[in-house]
């Protein structure tokens, strides 16, 4: 496989848009911690509250708990602005309503860089991705264009925003770029560990933040100078 290029850092503000609590923490949070340490302004928008994500816990209990855990997780990487769109966990649909909500968030926050999750059908290694991730990632890419068109979603009452330079999808099987997270690796582990209830319901490597994240960072680093790294598929506007 080809070596990965460094993600450009010629920007000062970013918006993370993902489907669920914990999505960015399985790899991408190390980059977020690096960038907030540089003084960059980063906010999060989540399509749902993760209420259907814990098999042993009723959604009415899981949703509020996972919101609290996501806020704590974001704090661990220097992010204090966290918003939830309240689409239904597990059955998020790609379509105009989702694009509209994400376009509104882009117009409100006016980022130069938009970060989302993997929207391809599989993960690196071939494991099947899930519908919520694909829907939200794809809608985010499209909403960047929507946000810049003043004749689309006029009812939002928000000025269009054409200032996005890049869109990046974390942990894509088609990754082109990477970020050195050597100095921010511990923060990424702390960020994932904040999802205590979710982790407690898991088994295997994904239940162990240090083990999972180190293995993933070392694997990406093999294509990026041998450092601990996290990968992104970068789309340029």
From TrEMBL:
One Pfam family cited in the UniProt record for this chain: PIG-L
InterPro entries for this protein: GlcNAc_PI_deacetylase-related, LmbE-like_dom_sf
SUPFAM superfamilies according to UniProt: LmbE-like
Keyword field: Zinc
Top-rank lineage group of the source organism: Bacteria
Signal sequence residues: none
PANTHER family in the cross-refs: LMBE FAMILY PROTEIN, N-ACETYLGLUCOSAMINYL-PHOSPHATIDYLINOSITOL DE-N-ACETYLASE-RELATED
Protein name: LmbE family N-acetylglucosaminyl deacetylase
Organism: Lentzea atacamensis
